[in-house]
Q: What sequence folds into this?
């Protein structure tokens, strides 16, 4: 039997030339009718998936040998898009709006490369075929026009509205949020056509906003009946036969430490001191794989969901609550089945011994981060609290001691530790936001963080050397170009990072983070560094984790809410029970891991996007009644269209370039700054500013700010008006008001060029015009001056120079230019 892999590998060979199905039949020596029928079916499947193509003369080949590329389309709200190729080593391909064809965001497409940069980096292409549609349903706002309607998509990457004929209204009325099934996709200028399949409610009804986001990202809410039936069949208590082969740890003091509102407790820990002075750390993880068997309805549903999604007012779990909050949750004082990783550390926090095994535990307490912090950090904890947990105090102190050693070791090896402020949005029963509170990263959170990291690394390394199919959490090295830009950027603040391009060790970046701790530029440098990094993802190969400076890393500690953790638990169980994997089992698992890694990474991105969107929605709603109020904030991002400012409560809003009315500002990408043309005033990433809430757009989930005490900019005169004014001044023999106005008004259009030529200044071109002022402003960015009195003085000095030019030399300069043009005409 010819498999997909065999056929694709054959067609990818360098010597292969497109062949007809008859020629392929002869090559593979297909003798029986059944084999031939199966082969034709395989060809059709691969063609439908876009993995192979059939030419006009009925010959088959792979897209990459025909100057075509297969991948996923990532559209932009402005109409253009990028192809994310299936081939991970291939760079993304830019697709102009005119070359998108009928493709929409999320579609699997075939793209022809039309141009590439000389260095081979930037590529452009056009969509030649849509292989499969990523959007079969669209969520949006229903706008009725009596005989027909349009649905305006919530997802702005879907750039065309959906046309709805009257017979497809489905009872929807103007202002309803609806789910539309796409009946026909856009062709040319024709819009896509759809029919209403679900009415979510009026756009202003409570809860409809979050429900719209859930439908938009196609997040599954209710579990299928067969999944619920299987979950219901899972027992509520541990039976004696379940303990067979497990190590009994019920006599140890083991605790869970989680947030107050956590219900799915999937990790527990204990620490002991050995007679030789070493530490023994036990990390015990809920044995979900014991209940969720491979290939079962529960397993298939968990694969499709990929992970649990934590929205502002609800959780969409990967597994039914009967498992996640019941038999799989490590609740206190009840027996629970676990997968344990026990590690012995010496005084320098080096692992000297480890053991991975199945176990049964009974946790002593369900601790919260708040209570552990109070017990360890406060000089005089509450007497009731201290009395209740007195028998665990030595354990908590030992946990803190070990966690700090693990952290210190991790920092020394170069792990990058971004300490950004996180927040939690509190909502009432109707889903309306009532407050935004900061989440503090205390010693309690750090204890669990360090212990989970240690277990994840230990498990990853153990099974890497066993050479069994596995899933790893990888973080690739930063893009060389982005990292180079970052290194150039920090020189503006007087910092230097050793290394070049991809050769920069993460230790050098962590050293920089420690160096800037507590400085004014800490936020800006940390933000730009983070943006230069790649996103972590899952992979079947252990490629290392750059951010953690770890050679081996996996996700082992959360099988209740992450599918990759559940998968590796199964592999661990098989190896523990059988000693090794059979050849057939090894081959099967190896063939599945790439697909699972890709699916898990994609579902993680969907979950993150949905979580961010609900946060943006509720933060916008929270600021709705604060229009006109003033706040202190920090510039968190600078763009060509304005700058984003983050308030102390983590709410972020945009100050548009058009709202900076005291000057004309230019965007300088390398410096992450906006610089005033006339005043040389600088707005830079990380600067503190005072803003006023000016607008809140609940449709777009955006907030607009404006600067407090922003003065209107002077009226700008066109160059034509300036020339006429100067001519009038020359005729009249005196500068007058018109000449002075010309000098001021023409500055933006003329003096930068004039400064370079020596016109409009002292005549030597050495920096008495606004061009020089702008140069000095850039220099101020490099030296960290910002909007200082020196910068303002430079602006005033430049203005004086221009004024002189208008009275004297300016007229001469313009006259010279006129004479030069006349000579050109005569010739």
A:
């Amino acid at each position: 039997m010819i498999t997909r892999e065999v056929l694709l590998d054959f067609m990818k060979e360098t010597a292969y030339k497109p062949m007809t199905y008859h020629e392929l039949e002869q090559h593979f020596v297909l003798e029986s009718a059944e084999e031939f029928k199966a082969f034709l079916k395989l060809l059709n499947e691969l063609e439908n998936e876009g993995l192979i193509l059939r030419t006009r003369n009925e010959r088959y080949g792979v897209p990459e040998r025909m100057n075509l590329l297969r991948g996923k389309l990532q559209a932009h709200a402005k109409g253009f898009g990028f192809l994310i190729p299936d081939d991970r080593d291939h760079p993304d391909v830019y697709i102009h709006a005119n070359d998108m064809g009928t493709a929409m965001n999320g579609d699997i497409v075939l793209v022809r490369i039309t141009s590439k940069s000389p260095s081979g980096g930037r590529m452009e292409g056009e969509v030649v075929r849509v292989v499969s549609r990523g959007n079969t349903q669209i969520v949006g706002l229903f706008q009725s026009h009596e005989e027909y309607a349009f649905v305006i998509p919530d997802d702005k990457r879907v750039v065309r509205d959906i046309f709805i004929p009257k017979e497809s209204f489905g009872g929807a009325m103007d202002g309803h949020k609806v789910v539309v099934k796409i009946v026909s996709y856009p062709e040319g200028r024709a819009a896509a056509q759809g029919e209403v399949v679900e009415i979510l409610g009026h756009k202003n009804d409570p809860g409809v906003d979050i429900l719209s986001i859930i439908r938009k990202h196609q997040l599954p809410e209710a579990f299928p009946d067969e999944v619920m039936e299987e979950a219901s069949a899972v027992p509520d208590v541990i039976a004696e036969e379940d303990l067979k082969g497990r190590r009994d740890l019920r006599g140890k003091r083991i605790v869970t430490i989680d947030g107050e509102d956590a219900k799915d407790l999937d990790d527990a820990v204990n620490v002991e001191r050995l007679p030789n002075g070493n530490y023994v750390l036990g990390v015990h993880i809920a044995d979900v794989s014991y209940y969720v068997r491979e290939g079962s309805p529960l397993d298939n549903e968990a694969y499709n969901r990929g992970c649990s999604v934590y929205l502002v007012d609800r959780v969409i779990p990967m597994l039914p609550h009967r498992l996640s909050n019941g038999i799989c949750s490590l609740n206190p004082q009840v027996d629970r089945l676990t997968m344990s990783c026990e590690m012995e550390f010496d005084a320098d926090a080096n692992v000297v011994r480890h053991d991975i095994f199945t176990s049964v535990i009974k946790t002593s307490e369900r601790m919260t981060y708040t209570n552990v912090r109070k017990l360890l950090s406060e000089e005089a904890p509450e007497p009731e609290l201290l009395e209740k947990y007195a028998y665990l105090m030595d354990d908590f102190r030992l946990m803190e001691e070990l966690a700090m050693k693990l952290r210190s070791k991790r920092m020394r090896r170069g792990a990058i530790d971004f300490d950004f402020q996180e927040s939690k949005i509190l909502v009432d029963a109707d889903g309306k936001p009532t407050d935004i509170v900061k989440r503090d990263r205390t010693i309690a959170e750090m204890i669990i963080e360090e212990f989970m990291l240690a277990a994840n690394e230990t498990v990853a390394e153990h099974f890497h050397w066993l050479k069994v199919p596995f899933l790893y959490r990888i973080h690739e090295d930063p893009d060389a170009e982005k990292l180079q830009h970052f290194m150039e950027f920090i020189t503006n603040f007087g910092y230097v990072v050793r290394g070049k391009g991809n050769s920069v060790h993460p230790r050098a970046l962590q050293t920089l983070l420690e160096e800037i701790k507590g400085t004014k530029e800490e936020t800006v440098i940390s933000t730009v560094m983070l943006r230069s990094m790649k996103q972590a993802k899952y992979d079947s190969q252990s490629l290392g984790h750059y951010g953690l400076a770890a050679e081996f890393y996996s996700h082992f500690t959360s099988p209740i809410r992450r599918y990759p953790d559940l998968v590796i638990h199964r592999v661990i169980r098989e190896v523990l029970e059988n000693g090794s994997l059979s050849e057939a089992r090894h081959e099967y698992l190896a063939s599945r891991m790439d697909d699972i890694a890709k699916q898990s990474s994609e579902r993680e991105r969907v979950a993150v996007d949905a979580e961010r969107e609900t946060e943006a929605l509720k933060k916008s709603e929270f600021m709705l009644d604060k229009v006109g109020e003033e706040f202190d904030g920090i510039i968190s991002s600078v763009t060509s269209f304005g700058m984003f400012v983050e308030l102390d409560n983590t709410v972020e809003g945009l100050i548009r370039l058009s709202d900076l009315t005291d000057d004309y500002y230019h965007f300088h990408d390398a410096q992450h700054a906006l610089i005033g043309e006339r005043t040389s005033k600088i707005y830079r990433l990380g600067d503190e500013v005072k803003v006023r809430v000016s607008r809140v757009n609940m449709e777009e989930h955006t907030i607009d700010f404006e600067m407090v005490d922003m003065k209107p900019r002077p009226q700008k005169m066109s160059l034509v008006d300036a020339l006429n004014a100067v001519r009038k001044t020359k005729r009249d023999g005196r500068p007058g008001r018109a000449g002075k106005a010309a000098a001021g008004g023409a500055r933006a259009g003329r003096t930068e060029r004039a400064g370079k030529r020596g016109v409009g200044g002292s005549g030597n071109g050495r920096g008495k015009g606004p061009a020089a002022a702008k140069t000095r402003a850039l220099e101020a960015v490099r030296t960290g001056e910002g909007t200082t009195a020196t910068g303002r003085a430079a602006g005033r000095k430049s203005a004086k120079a221009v004024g002189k030019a208008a009275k004297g030399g300016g007229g001469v300069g313009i006259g010279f230019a006129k004479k030069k043009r006349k000579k050109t005409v005569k010739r």
Confidence is low (pLDDT under 50) at residues 735-768, 780-827. The longest helix spans residues 583-622. The longest strand covers residues 351-362. The chain has 22 helices and 33 strands.
